[in-house]
Amino acid sequence: MTWDSYRAADHFIMRSARLIDRHRFAFHFQSAPARPVHAALAAHRNLDGGYGNGLDPDLRGHGSQPVATETALRYLDELGAIPEDIGQGICLFLATAANEDGGVPAVLPTVRHTEAAPWYRGTDDFSSRLDVTAMITGLLHKNNVAHPWRDLATAYCWKTIDGLHWTDPHEAIGICTFLQYVPDRPRAVATMNHMATKIRAVIDVHPRATGHVHTPLDLACHPAHIARPLFTDAEIIRNLEAFEEEQRPDGGWDACWDHWDTTATLERQGMRTIQRLRILRAYGRLVPDLPHPRRSL
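RESULT FIELD:
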């Protein structure tokens, strides 16, 4: 990726991304401190410890939702150690949102009374979702956030993963995050080996795939990722090249998401642009003099 391409992405973020993602971009690529990201994220936090208030572009309501809380947890993880009070608040909310099996749904029934994407607002399925639960639980383990619900969710993830006959891309990403960070390493490695064929089968390795697809780099987002061995060096290189070629003339990347609202789509484009840049840098494809972030809180 050339310096001009990076500068185009910089201009796109400043022109089109929401405030929290502008601060994330500055943190990751301009050596800015983490404090502005924490401050922007706090505006999306509710008294119950969960997150809402439009943090997930497809959920515009105020109330806390598990999938929005997952987004908050991913953002917090980018910044370094998660503050204890915030981590405990997240767990308290998820404990109330969880089903009896310990897993959490993507959204709660309250979503029906808010502005939200039709696939959320019209859902009648509030059963536990492995993709959301595994992603959250893996990040809690990574950040050493201990809570009784986390342990219950861990048991749910192990049981559900062991019983899988098939998966999907979203679920595969959550599973790999869980297996990357869960403390039982021998079991995690054995499970990854068992799941490898199923996971690879739902990832589109073709670098010219269009639409709402998931590439090897969406799964193995850095070279040390537990899923990286599932793909050949040639497949990774081809997809890195495709990422670079898919950058639009305005500097951004398409959201690759089902369009339902112009604002939501534009917000996702900002999020996707930062995601693509972070992956390109992780694989050494950004200009060499680009600064790395300071891990300051």
